[in-house]
Amino acid sequence: MIHFFQAIYDWMIGFFGVGNFIKIINSGDYSSFLTYDGFTSIIGPLFPIVLVIEILVALVLRKFNAIDYKISFFSYVLNAFIGRFISIAAIIFCIGLFEKYAIFKTTFTWYWFIYGYIVWEFAHFIYHYLGHKVRLFWCLHSTHHAPQTMNLSVSYAHFFLEGTYADIIRTTVCILLGVNPPMLFVIMFIDGFYGGFIHIGEHLMKDGKLGFLYKYILTPSHHRVHHAKNPLYMDTNFCNLLNIWDRIFGTYQPEEKGLAIEYGITREMKPNSFLDSYFGEFACLLKDVYKAPGLKNKFLYIFMPPGWSHTGDHKTASVTRTEFMESQRQFNQNEFETLEKEAVV
């Protein structure tokens, strides 16, 4: 029984990330809080604590539904034992392999930190964009988009290999562009914290626009748009904090007033099913590859965007969004012509 409670205690310490914080308190050396490890020991627990607060608020408001957390919970459990260690190994491997090929070296200073964060966002944009535009990578990323509600736990909903795929791309790009490795770890920590925060649900933050910051950074409102399956919102807002690359590449999309966000993925799936959210896209891909005529088409199904078809009847996000925009334009044109006729009469 003692071992059982000890296991529960260790799990809670690990989940809330307060292990280092407790060690520093027990040591009595509070100056350690001024170091990187000390800083992360303070900031790290904030996210899981806010997640618990979000759940408690939902309970008080009688809006809590355990099924909304099912996919995220099982993903977290699986990734905690597998994905985390593979990702760390991938990061270390990429740093060791590519650091000697960096175009130049940077130092850990405030101006290089700004440069490093802009480069990090560029690397994140590449990984995230490919995660939506390459079918194989979408199979890894789709688990994160499967939940049909938005709350902080969604940040835990990932296929166990997605972190590895993401970290290989982001680390490689950053290291080749000269980002200092120690500084990269600081950026990763900040990005991870903010990346979790922007999944905050409407129970704790109804608007999600963060006031004047909405114009300058990507907010929870922007990320809710990214998680939407509405045609207008599909495949937009790929950055995490700085929206510079979304604006440059034309994927920036603000939340439209009056257009309610519909969360989830467009494929018909079993509602809130962990197995379908985790393996469903792989099953669909294998089915398409098996049925595709010829080796070329089989290859294209793997690397073309989700919704691509060898028949030419594409249902990709780009096609769906373009068709929606055209239908809206036509609707507005018809409305305008109707008003003109009424005005003449």
TrEMBL record:
Pfam families documented for this protein: FA_hydroxylase
Topology relative to the membrane: Multi-pass membrane protein
Keyword Lipid metabolism applies: yes
Positions in coiled-coil regions: none
Residue ranges constituting the Fatty acid hydroxylase domain according to the UniProt record: 114-251
Residues spanning the membrane: 7-26, 38-61, 73-98, 110-130
Intracellular or extracellular location(s): Endomembrane system
Signal peptide start-end: none
UniProtKB keywords: Lipid metabolism, Membrane, Oxidoreductase, Transmembrane, Transmembrane helix
Keyword Lipid metabolism attached: yes
Primary localisation category: membrane
InterPro entries to which the protein is assigned, alphabetical: Fatty_acid_hydroxylase, Sterol_desaturase/TMEM195
Matches recorded under PANTHER family: ALKYLGLYCEROL MONOOXYGENASE, STEROL DESATURASE-RELATED PROTEIN
Protein name, UniProt field: Sterol desaturase family protein
